[in-house]
Amino acid sequence: AFLNVLEKLELSPGDAENLFWELSAAATKNVELTTFVRGSIMLKETATKLDILPVANLDVARAHVLRAELKLHRNFANLHSIDSIANKTALKITSLGGNMEELVNRVTQFCNEVPMEDEEERSRFLETTLTVARLIMQLQGGCGFLIAPISAFMSMKSRNIDFQVTDRNENFPEGYMTEQLKDVHVGSSAFAAALQEFAKHTDDDRWPQGHPAAGLPKDGFVLLSSHGFRLKCAARLTGLPTPPFRWDNVGSRHLSALAACWAFRLQPSIVIVRSETGKVHVLHVTYENSRSVLALAFKPRRRQDVKIEFDT
Predict the structure, then answer these.
(1) Taxonomically, which superkingdom (predicted)?
(2) pTM, whole model, 2 decimals?
(3) Which among 23, 258, 63, 264 is positioned nearest to 161, based on CA atoms?
(4) Cβ–Cβ < 8 Å for 254, 237
(5) Which helix (H) or strand (E) holds 127?
(6) Fold designation for 91-298
(7) 292 SS3 class
(8) Could you report the per-residue pLDDT of 172-203, keeping only the tens digit for each?
(9) Which 3 state secondary structure label does DSSP give 234?
(10) What is the DSSP letter of 243?
(11) CA 200 to CA 194: how far, in whole Å?
(12) Fewer Cβ atoms within 10 A, N terminus or C terminus of the chain?
């Protein structure tokens, strides 16, 4: 009988189903027969039956958006600033002054506590971390390192965290610094020389004219495996979750370091970041409480304080 009704209304079963879906608010409420017939007649009067529905829905949606915008405008007409996310705790920072021995002891303690697959991996992780800590203090300018096993980076990638090089062009499709440091260990003099050049400040934070990478950014983090080899350099970390901590009076590099430390908190990892003024922060989770991040602040008295000899 219902098919006879559809035939008289010149409505196909498919169009009828779509009409019912629209009138019932996606099958969430009942539809009176008179309402259905009225809707069918309205469709019949259009040139292309259901073409009216998207247009009608679009008009309704536009009206809702307009009303919402007007309401927001009235509510926030006198708003002159936007608050940060509430309930963030201040990042715990332990100042070590210029005590390099204390920094080494703290980093060693952390590396001995962090869960690792085996003791060889732990030993490599500690060696790489201490090498980076000493190297970064020999540099001039700001930079950042993220050290973790390759498996940790792959785990983050599976969670849609991306590591994008900032210094890529047609001459360096994998990124200038990434290509320069392929198979170069962090403890080598070649690695140290490349990082010295990379971290050195320029007026626009780009490689200068006359350099093979001229115009490309000198920005981003060095991503190192626990064995001390680069995975990517000059890398921008995207998709990081917002950490529940507040770190005042620092720039975007340090906030990215904090976000990276928080994202990698369930993985063996450590982040080391240096400001333009030479102050170094080592960030890691505390294993008494994996939801807490600790920053060790270190400012060498003189560059000679952290002199390190690199392998040739």
Answers:
(1) Eukaryota
(2) 0.73
(3) 264
(4) no
(5) helix 119-138
(6) YojJ-like (1 (3.40.1700)
(7) strand
(8) 999 999 999 999 999 999 999 999 999 998 88
(9) strand
(10) P
(11) 10
(12) N
